[in-house]
Amino acid sequence: MSTLEVKDLHVSIDGKNILKGVNLTMKTGEIHAIMGPNGTGKSTLSEAIMGHPAYKVTQGEVLLNGENILELPVDERARAGLFLAMQYPAEIPGVTNAEFIRGAINARRPEDKPLSVRSFLKQLDKTMSVLDMTEEMADRYLNEGFSGGEKKRNEILQLMMIKPKFAILDEIDSGLDIDALKVVSRGVNQMRGPEFGSLIITHYQRLLNYIVPDVVHVMMGGRIVKQGGPELAKRLEDEGYAGLRDELGLDIKLVDEEA
Amino acid sequence: MTVDLKKYPAIAEYAKKTAEPTWFTELRTKSLEKASSLELPSFEKIRYQRWPIQLEQPLEKKGSRKELIETLKPEQTGNMVVQLGQNTLELKISSEMQDQGVIVCDWQTALREHGDLVQKYFMQKAVKFDEDRLTAQHVAHLTSGLFIYVPKNVVLKEAFTSYFFQDATAKNDYVHHVIIVVGENSEFSYLENLKTVGEQATTANIIVEVVAQENSHVKFASVDRLGANTTTYLNRRGHLKKNAKIDWSMGMMNDGNIVGDFDSDLAGDGAHSEVKIVAISTGKQVQGIDTRVTNIGKHTIGHILQHGVILSRSTLTFNGIGHIIKGAKGADAQQESRVLMLSNKAKGDANPILLIDDNDVTAGHAASIGRVNQEQLYYLMSRGLPKKVAERLVIIGFLGPVLAAIPSKVIRAQLKATIERKLIDGQKDE
């Protein structure tokens, strides 16, 4: 079992404070969801955990199995077991999807023991069929010219092939139609197990009908303001974020709120 | 004209040993006499004049060490030539080529057995012997090369490959000439591998002339890997007749200082040249690449696409010259030069130069110098790839548009492997 702990995390970008003390603990075997209105720092949290250079941690720590990972470069965090399915994956022309995924897997193996091409392809074929992806997607250049939905599936494909300890899924549902949403959820659900934990970031409850979380965190104004079970997500869907805010007596302006 | 060979004992000696025809020996002495009064060629923003690029050693026939020869067997077995220094180790021509009357032979054989043909094309159509000091020195010191003659109406399916090894195990100049003449309505694919063996400081002067006759189509590809201590003048030039086409695909993967002068003269109406170049500079080397297409005929098309990457303290300069001569109605000159810098100490330049002397034409250019896209790097690293591996993938991605435009899949794959190797070596200096 592994643990991921976020302790009193403060993060700023371009000098603006976004996260103002986030605390969160999760274990493998658990699925956590973070919900919250737009502009509340959900993506900032995921990028800061992964180590995007533009996000500056000003206070606090992120511990993986008790060790602070904030000093590690991005690739070492990844090899330590973290994965971030990104909202806007970069496009890399000239590098095929299959070539890239194999490289990522081999980066985790001893240099003299790379995964054989044959067993890699077998695994890739199997995983792609779970995600209803056509074979040609393996030979296309990484994310280049992919539709929004194809990019999301491709993120989940990488997740399933790399098999991290903890995966953060940053709004993996945005821009997906209901069929694609089901496919993506199927992939994530297949990963569920004692060796896998996931932090799912979303602002709609819909995704959580398909990937049922163990814990739901609500984030507002750069902090986690409430925790609960899956029923908390349903309640937010019915009452909206403003209701919860007022109940908690928070003085936070919601970005999308009418003035 | 009679030449007093007594004035040139080295040339006289060499001519006797190789039994080269008199006209050629006379051209050598004429070139030598003229060389000192000619200027070195000048290229925008490429300052190479102080390099040891001029040929100063006397003409001399030289062999290479036998034990070296054994190590140079390429994997390929047929339809190829292997040369080391001045010597030809192997020459195998497919029956397809033989049956259709294609001539492929080394330089000395060409002069002896196909003297008239060589005389017709050598420094006549594409490059002139007295163009500048380097071309004149080239003729005076020329000691190796290849002659390929494809008669008209011959369509060759299989490509011909050359492996030219510059022998730098001794301090010998490497002066090499390739002529490729492709006849009317013929099609020919050629892949050239230039590589250095040995580490002595040497000078290379290489000229390749491609003459594409009416309606012919030539695919010329090259992977250049000259050594760190070789200073090179590399001139490749195409002369295109009516409706002829040349596809150039060149990988400049050298480790030493080099001036690449790559030109196409679109002499006939409807002639078409596509020039694709990828280049990587590493260490402290300087690579200056001057690519020119001259539209002379009507409705000619000249496209230049060059992408390059610079590591460490190295320099890479791309000049792209589109020159449309007055009267070249309906001509099209397009070019794109892009340079990616991986280090703050690297120096890069991309200079688009359009010289247009006619109104009824289309022309365009794009040029950029940039740094590695951080979002791409972050994405790749977030999957666990170490920074250097991620950088290599981004670089291959950056070179991708040029690689993708190279017609042959085999050459694409080969070039990609060479790029990978050059980058891994280059990153060690970072």
TrEMBL record, chain A:
<keyword id="KW-0547">Nucleotide-binding</keyword>
<dbReference type="GO" id="GO:0005524">
    <property type="term" value="F:ATP binding"/>
</dbReference>
<dbReference type="InterPro" id="IPR003593">
    <property type="entry name" value="AAA+_ATPase"/>
</dbReference>
<dbReference type="InterPro" id="IPR003439">
    <property type="entry name" value="ABC_transporter-like_ATP-bd"/>
</dbReference>
<comment type="similarity">
    <text>Belongs to the ABC transporter superfamily. Ycf16 family.</text>
</comment>
<dbReference type="InterPro" id="IPR027417">
    <property type="entry name" value="P-loop_NTPase"/>
</dbReference>
<dbReference type="InterPro" id="IPR010230">
    <property type="entry name" value="FeS-cluster_ATPase_SufC"/>
</dbReference>
<dbReference type="InterPro" id="IPR017871">
    <property type="entry name" value="ABC_transporter-like_CS"/>
</dbReference>
<feature type="domain" description="ABC transporter">
    <location>
        <begin position="4"/>
        <end position="246"/>
    </location>
</feature>
<dbReference type="Pfam" id="PF00005">
    <property type="entry name" value="ABC_tran"/>
</dbReference>
<keyword id="KW-0067">ATP-binding</keyword>
<protein>
    <submittedName>
        <fullName>ABC transporter ATP-binding protein</fullName>
    </submittedName>
</protein>
<dbReference type="GO" id="GO:0016887">
    <property type="term" value="F:ATP hydrolysis activity"/>
</dbReference>
UniProtKB/TrEMBL annotation, chain B:
<dbReference type="InterPro" id="IPR000825">
    <property type="entry name" value="SUF_FeS_clus_asmbl_SufBD_core"/>
</dbReference>
<dbReference type="InterPro" id="IPR011542">
    <property type="entry name" value="SUF_FeS_clus_asmbl_SufD"/>
</dbReference>
<dbReference type="InterPro" id="IPR055346">
    <property type="entry name" value="Fe-S_cluster_assembly_SufBD"/>
</dbReference>
<feature type="domain" description="SUF system FeS cluster assembly SufBD N-terminal">
    <location>
        <begin position="97"/>
        <end position="159"/>
    </location>
</feature>
<dbReference type="Pfam" id="PF01458">
    <property type="entry name" value="SUFBD_core"/>
</dbReference>
<dbReference type="InterPro" id="IPR045595">
    <property type="entry name" value="SufBD_N"/>
</dbReference>
<dbReference type="Pfam" id="PF19295">
    <property type="entry name" value="SufBD_N"/>
</dbReference>
<protein>
    <submittedName>
        <fullName>Iron sulfur ABC transporter</fullName>
    </submittedName>
</protein>
<feature type="domain" description="SUF system FeS cluster assembly SufBD core">
    <location>
        <begin position="171"/>
        <end position="398"/>
    </location>
</feature>
<comment type="similarity">
    <text>Belongs to the iron-sulfur cluster assembly SufBD family.</text>
</comment>
<dbReference type="GO" id="GO:0016226">
    <property type="term" value="P:iron-sulfur cluster assembly"/>
</dbReference>
<dbReference type="InterPro" id="IPR037284">
    <property type="entry name" value="SUF_FeS_clus_asmbl_SufBD_sf"/>
</dbReference>
